[in-house]
Design goal:
Layout (H helix, E strand, L loop, with lengths): L1 H9 L5 H8 L2 H10 L6 E2 L4 H10 L9 H20 L1 H11 L2 E2 L7
Antiparallel strand pairs: 1-2
Organism: Microbulbifer epialgicus
Protein name: YceK/YidQ family lipoprotein
Keywords: Lipoprotein, Signal
Length: 109
C-alpha cells in the first residue's frame, strides 16, 4: 500500500524534465538551473528532458540533499527519455532552428 501511495505521488512528476524544456523559455530554463547551481554550459534541444535532469543531478550538493530526490530524478530521466523520443521531430526542428539552450550565457543574468 505504501508503494502505491508513493507511486501516485510521483506520477505527476514523470517526464517533467521534458515538459519543462518544451514549455519554458530558454531564459526560464537557464534561471532554474542557475538556482540549482548547475555546472552545465548548455543543453541540446534533442533529448532536452534527459539533459535537463542530468544537469540538475550534477548541480551542487546543496541543491540535491535527499537521496529520495535523486531517485525521483533518475525515475524521471527514464520517463523523460521515452517522452523525448516521442517528440524527436519537434526537437530536431527546434535544434536546427535555434541551437542549444544556453545555460551559462551572460545574456540571461
Amino acid at each position: 500500500m505504501k508503494f502505491l501511495i508513493f507511486a501516485l505521488c510521483i506520477l505527476p512528476l514523470t517526464a517533467c524534465g521534458t515538459f519543462t524544456t518544451l514549455t519554458s523559455t530558454d531564459r526560464e530554463i537557464a534561471a532554474n538551473l542557475k538556482k540549482q547551481n548547475s555546472s552545465c554550459e548548455s543543453i541540446p534541444r534533442v533529448y532536452s528532458g534527459l539533459s535537463y535532469n542530468m544537469c540538475k543531478m550534477h548541480s551542487s550538493s546543496d541543491s540535491i540533499n535527499v537521496d529520495l530526490l535523486l531517485g525521483v530524478y533518475l525515475l524521471d530521466s527514464v520517463v523523460s527519455t521515452a517522452t523525448d523520443t516521442a517528440v524527436l521531430p519537434v526537437t530536431i526542428y527546434r535544434q536546427n532552428k535555434s541551437g542549444n539552450i544556453l545555460v551559462r550565457s551572460s545574456e540571461y543574468y
